[in-house]
Amino acid sequence: MKTINSRIRLLAYGLCLVAALYNCKTKEVESVTPFTYTFKGLENVTLPEVKPTTPASVSVVAASVNSSTVAAAVSSGLSSITATGQVPASVQQAATDVSKAVSPEKATAIAAAFTPTVISNLASTGTLPANLKTEVAAIASNPALQAYLPTFTLPQVNGKTVGGRVGATDVTVPVAIANATMDDACTVAANTAYASAVATLDAAKQTQSAPINAQFTQAQTSIQTDATACKSSKPATYDAYRAVALQQLNQGIATLSAAKSILGESTYNLLSVLYYVAYSQAVTGINTLQAADTNTCDAVATAKIANAQAARDADLSQINSNYTTAVASLQKARATAIASCHNQGNGGRKGADEPE
Known about the structure:
Distance between the termini: 71 Å
Largest sheet: 3 strands, antiparallel
């Protein structure tokens, strides 16, 4: 009986030990839900859209060669002399006007000096022998002959007469990210959100600037190509003017020769001088105009590139201004966020912009 009681007590002690061990078993801790900080003003940042500006236009007044209507009337009158045997008033008046600038005797010498060789050299090089050049210049400057001579209008670009640079780069606004003391999770999150927002703005600025810079580069290439083509076209244009001037001289002299017996030696020489002086002035004017017109090609290109550059710079400036404003707003929002973190006891359970 004593042995049975001992066994019962031993079994009871074992049950108590098992119960005690069960009660001491470690319980699993419920998992903690991850906390995400949110900060007003540091999320969903964007830059305002900037549409490319259209460059200002360039105004161009083309060069022109203007024939004399008075000289045309003289040529018409000369053409009728052989048929009518009469000297028209326009022709007689022309001889009278030339005599105001040069005597009949000198007119004879000057007319003789315009040999085929001299005329050929004038046509090809635009120059006359020095002494003849001086005589022609003096006659051409006489007011009595101005109405008989061709006139020339020099080209203009943006209102400036043309006679015979740029670049801008994208401005990167330095952004100073303050090294705030990383003493809590909330502050770390605020600075991380700020850095991410600035990176977003950097990418947006690059995205907006790239096509504007590309548009300028393309415009610059196109403008320079047009200028090259413009200059290459000028020789043919002005060679044609020179050919017409020489044709008019030859026709005029031929008509004069046909009517010489009716006109008389003196009038013939005076009118010959008029044709030679007019032709000399035409060649000089055409050559000057060609040089000016060629320069106009470059002047137009320079003005167009300047306008394209101004448009580009204005757009890049607007982008940079928007970027600077946005970064300043981010800096303010970050400061507010960090202050809120500290006010909550260095990273409490609430978000930096959430109420307690």
